[in-house]
């Protein structure tokens, strides 16, 4: 007998900048992701720019963070490959892609809207009609198969123009730009889209610094300020969405990393608790409970943070609480106060190797129990419906006689779905699950397509060569069965 509720939302997730392509089509403006070069496990992606003296330059890119030096402006150079510009060309292939999602039996498809397709610079008054129309076509296609869209308003692709002008959310004006954009979407797609997520992995600015040993107080100041402005923007969007259509349900989106103490040393146990506070609860509490938690003062003091926050901000945070707790989950991590040479990385995370876990080709720990732990602890704290909106394995695939036997991915999913079932049996109100990604796409971290997450294979390599032909992997058929049996057959 399955424990999954009858109307459980099975599906998959993508982000516009990682699949769409069409980066200059129909009036779209440049996004920050368009000036990011390709990288690899050991080679960081770069942002390319022209500096204040007119000279070309590059700077290490971190997804979601704009590192342009003062006075520089982002630029595209012909001697670099920018994988997000064409990505896997969903822009021209969406019909066949959505058809394949329908074949798997998707109930929901998590996607994001490219902000610069709607507002090319990010701060125009009037939206770009052709951009709005593109998403009308997508929603129409989804409706044809009764697939519900779950739309992320901002997923790591801020328009380049405002991102530069407002120094990556260091200016309060960014809030108004975002709110205007979000309101435009709520009005335009009223009755067509009712499930929304405000920001992808809003806790990313803090996560990124947690593994940057050279991070200075000034970096923390920027991260906390950016996060505050985004939290306010999110809360204002939630209020507007509820007002425009009471049927709208809005989720936050947290990068969910489960932290354990590396040793039984009480100092490690305490550090683990504080890691949860800083990286998970700090942003989650604001979005779910409407105000900063008591430990926020300690966190700010640690780096002498002076937050620019108004009374109106605080009222907005309280009035704009989310309806659903949504999060991504890929792996767990260990916290320790002891030195260790055996360091590992993860999704915005770094720590000590856990000897009880296996690690992926890209060094991420596979830990399905960590998902169960995260679900249980989060539901216990917030008691609102929970949804996993990203979970998957990035691994290389081999095409053999037109087939892709991605058994490792199936095993990964099987373990995690079993963990979800255990959490449900333990009382968690888990309402849905979207795998990352349903289709091979450009890795946010490395810019590679060879770090494949899809249930659908795309013929493309890390230099941009390939026919872009789509092929169902073995995991495609396996997931189809999972959905048909509502999680009974794993
Ligand atoms: C999440 C992001 O952090 O992890 C996705 O929301 C991203 O955009 C996913 O693709 C997997 O990370 P990566 O770096 O392997 O693409």
Protein described:
There is one protein chain. The longest helix is centred in the middle third of the chain and has 28 residues, at 217-244. A 9-stranded parallel beta sheet has the order 8-7-6-5-1-16-15-10-9. The protein has a 3-stranded antiparallel beta sheet with strand order 3-2-4, with no helix packed on it. The protein has a two-stranded antiparallel sheet with strand order 11-12. With 490 residues, it is of the alpha/beta class. The protein starts with 8 loop residues before the first strand and ends in a 6-residue tail after the last helix. The chain has 15 helices and 18 strands. The protein has a single domain, classed as Glycosidases (TIM Barrel), CATH 3.20.20.80. The chain has helices at 16-19, 83-86, 90-103, 115-118, 129-144, 160-165, 173-188, 204-210, 217-244, 266-289, 296-302, 311-319, 368-382, 407-425, 474-484, and strands at residues 9-13, 46-50, 56-60, 73-74, 108-112, 148-154, 195-199, 249-251, 254-261, 325-335, 343-346, 349-352, 358-359, 365-366, 386-390, 430-436, 456-458, 470-472. It binds 6-O-phosphono-beta-D-glucopyranose. Residues 15, 18, 156, 200-201, 255, 328, 347, 390, 394, 436, 443-445, 451 line the site of 6-O-phosphono-beta-D-glucopyranose.
